[in-house]
Task: structure prediction
Amino acid sequence: MRVALICTDKPDHLQTRLDNRTAHLGYIEATGVVEMAGPLLSPEGKMTGSLIILNVETLAQGQAWAASDPYAKAGLFSSVTVSEWKKVIG
Result:
C-alpha cells in the first residue's frame, strides 16, 4: 500500500530542517520504503514542509516510519498527516 505523509514545519524552524537533513536523507535511504519525497515550498521558494510517499504493508507501518523520521524526532513539524494514498497517474 502507498501512504502519503504531509508534514508542515513549525514556523521559523528552517535551521532545524537544515541541521537534520543529512540524518533524514540517510533514514530514507536506509529504510528503503520511500517511493518519492521532497520539500513543500513557500511562494518565496523556502522549505516549509515535506511530502513523502511510502510503499509499506500497513498504515501502522507508515505511522511508525513517520514517528521515527529524524525530522520528527527533532521537533521540526507542527503537523503530520498520514493517509493511505492511491496512485492513479504517473
